[in-house]
Amino acid sequence: MLTKTKEAQVAAAAGEAKQMTMIQALRSALDVMMERDDNVVVFGEDVGYFGGVFRVTEGLQTKYGKSRCFDTPINEGGIVGAAVGMGAYGLRPVAEIQFADYFYPAYDQIVSEAARLRHRSAGDFTCPLTIRMPCGGGIYGGQTHSQSPEALFTHVCGLRTVIPSNPYDAKGLLISAIECDDPVVFLEPKRLYNGPFDGHHDRPVTPWSKHPLGKVPEGYYKVPLESAAVVRPGKQLTVIAYGTMVWVAQAAAEETGIDAEIIDLRSLWPLDLDTVLESVKKTGRCVVVHEATKTSGFGAELCSLVQEHCFYHLEAPIERVAGWDTPYPHATEWAYFPGPARLGAAFQRAVEA
């Protein structure tokens, strides 16, 4: 876990900070790394001239040229396959899958090639590949632009899976991912690109320009992979969350008045298990939340780990709140999305059991 003191030291070393959206923070991370290391290349569908569908890569092609930031055909398998080869030959590719929903054609390359290269070559080759994927719902994207497929990556040995919840972490984690010699799947919650979202879709959006975590150092700094953060200390129960659900959990805690300790995992796998266990052993109660479908979701692994390591500390059954086991619905998006009301009800059940 990165303490507040260490985070302050890291930020100070990175120079002057400015307010950024998550989009701008991610772009800043790419800019910093492309300037520091000529081996860092960025590519994907529309990432070059157009600057990406969400504008994360805007201006990078103009600054670094078409050989380091370039467009690809609409071929996810080809994008990742080329990136694996680049990584094996010494480059540090950052490949973008335009929406996480479209990574499936590339899954064989991710699992059979990227994740296995170090092992199958007995360490002679590594695959320092970062695959960026905008993920999650809350944007009326329907079933083909709203998926949260993180569990399909955490199951694969040899992959790292990361998902930030704010601009500061997004930049620091992306820099760490690019410098990592293992392949990293870097999931970006679309609903958080321009501001924190607490699940109340009928309220005005709070921009990152008005939030402390929107203040991001302009220079180089890292947030270590495998480091969770306690974003809200509490005594009554532990909430394990990541991505957009970190903000929904905070809203649920405020609305119920329950003194919940909220952990932002940041790195799903490898997992900062020590931070999770320390919290659950303190509170004796645990709620796990994610946006992805419930069955075989990453929450099941979290529940299992907590049960395995904290059985004698638990005062109540572990609660799990997730998306329904259906394709992501367009017309009933907010019934599917795990909002503060559903999560708050789980808090109540946990503390009253």
Question: What order do the helices and strands come in, and which of them pair?
Answer:
Blueprint (H helix, E strand, L loop, with lengths): L3 H10 L3 E3 L2 H15 L3 E5 L15 H5 L4 E3 L4 H13 L3 E5 L10 H8 L2 H4 L9 E6 L15 H4 L5 E3 L4 H13 L4 E6 L25 E3 L11 E4 L4 E5 L3 H12 L3 E5 L2 E3 L3 H11 L2 E8 L4 H13 L8 E5 L9 H4 L3 H13 L1
Helix pairs in contact: 2-8, 4-5, 9-13, 10-11
Label this structure with key terms.
single chain, 353 residues, alpha/beta, seven-stranded mixed sheet, five-stranded mixed sheet, globular
Q: How many E-type strands?
A: 14
Helical residue percent? 25-40%
Q: Quick one: biggest sheet?
A: 7 strands, mixed
State the strand order across the main sheet: 3-2-4-5-7-6-12
Helix-strand string:
HEHEHEHEHHEHEHEEEEHEEHEHEHH
Terminal residue distance:
30 Å
How large a portion of the residues is in β-strands, by DSSP E? 15-25%
Overall outline: globular
Q: What Rg is obtained from the alpha carbons, in whole angstroms?
A: 19 Å
Average predicted local confidence, pLDDT:
96
Structural class assignment: alpha/beta
Extract low-pLDDT stretches: none
Number of helices in the DSSP assignment: 13
